[in-house]
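Backbone shapes recur. Consider a single case.
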Amino acid sequence: MSAPSASDLTPAGLATRAAIADAAERLFRTLGYQKTTVADIARELRMSPANVYRFFASKAAINQEICARILADLDAAAWEVARGPGTPPARLRALFHRLRRQTEERLFKERRMHDMVAAALQENWPIVEQHIREIDAAFRHIVSEGQARGVFARLEGEDVVRFLHGSCAVFTHPALVEKCLAMGENLEVIAERTATFCLRALRPDIPEI
């Protein structure tokens, strides 16, 4: 029997589900998501593993829930920049740096959570697709405003979004970030140069090829 969805739970059930997720996140941050078992989570809350399974169908479902929290924080940070003050070019540059900074901070300050996000991306967990759509949307918001103001070329919007987001991979994808750092690269410099290159490509006075 599968666990009920969050929309099917009573307020008390939602509170219990949230408590389980909170306990799992605490353990993930100390033990790592791979080493944390359902029994560990149940013990933390002084309940039985069977009760945990009443709210989450599997350990993988718990992993998804915690990863969703981490990625939601990144999504919120991206939207804070996209909807914030400043010109579209300034916000685009700021978004590159915010995405880079969030990745670096997680790597150095929350290594175990960094490893979970790396696994989610590598294994294509379902939650990753939603995260990609959110970051795409943040880029699209800035690009659309820039095109409307005439500061960005009126190129095909979805192509622009795809290229902008893809160009961030070197300083946002966990595996690439670790490789760059191991080679002594400065991610802040890479993000700045990438942003400058992309902004030049978006100039409205450059004729299409």
Summary: The two ends are 58 Å apart (CA to CA). The chain has two domains: 6-57, 61-201. The mean pLDDT is 92.
